[in-house]
Specification:
Transcriptional Co-activator pc4, Chain A, 9 strands, 5-stranded antiparallel β-sheet, 16% helix, alpha+beta, 4-stranded antiparallel β-sheet, 46% strand, globular, single chain
């Protein structure tokens, strides 16, 4: 991961394949509503959702990632989060060896954006890497107010 929270964005790089990644950037806030862009990249895939909305910090994307990081010893099955519009979804699975797969799915709900769906999975270590991602995303969504 490399991030400049509240600035350029947060980049998630896959530990298994450096060509796979996710970028959260172009953060905007108006009337306590946070909007940001999400870009996926993988071999043969480049997708961008221009405006994802995250309404609730505690139960939003940052809260979901923080809960995953808190369970660094693992869990059974899949855990899933999606934003209120349903155009950004994240599924998490824990695998042996302490690795977490994060499947990032984009599906624009606005008809003007077209009818497409894209998904890319990034793999991270369940401990420090996932905790760092959770902190970077929280700071990005807060506008850089966390440290």
């Amino acid at each position: 991961m490399s991030g400049e929270a509240g600035g350029r964005g947060v980049e998630v790089r896959c530990g298994r394949n450096g060509a796979v990644g996710v970028l959260l950037n172009d953060r905007q806030e108006e009337d306590s509503v946070v909007r940001f862009a999400v870009q996926l990249r993988a071999p043969g895939l480049a997708a961008r959702l221009t405006e994802a909305v995250d309404l609730a910090p505690d139960v939003g994307l940052a809260g979901f990632l923080a809960a995953l990081a808190a369970d660094f010893r693992g869990w059974e099955g899949e855990r899933e989060w999606r934003n209120a519009d349903g155009d950004l979804a994240l599924r998490a699975v824990f695998r042996s060896g302490g690795h977490v797969g994060l499947a990032w799915a984009l599906r624009p709900w606005r008809a003007a954006d077209g009818g497409w769906r894209a998904e890319a999975t990034t793999w991270l270590e369940a401990g420090e890497q996932l905790a760092a991602l959770a902190a970077e995303v929280a700071a990005f969504l807060d506008g850089g107010e966390r440290g």
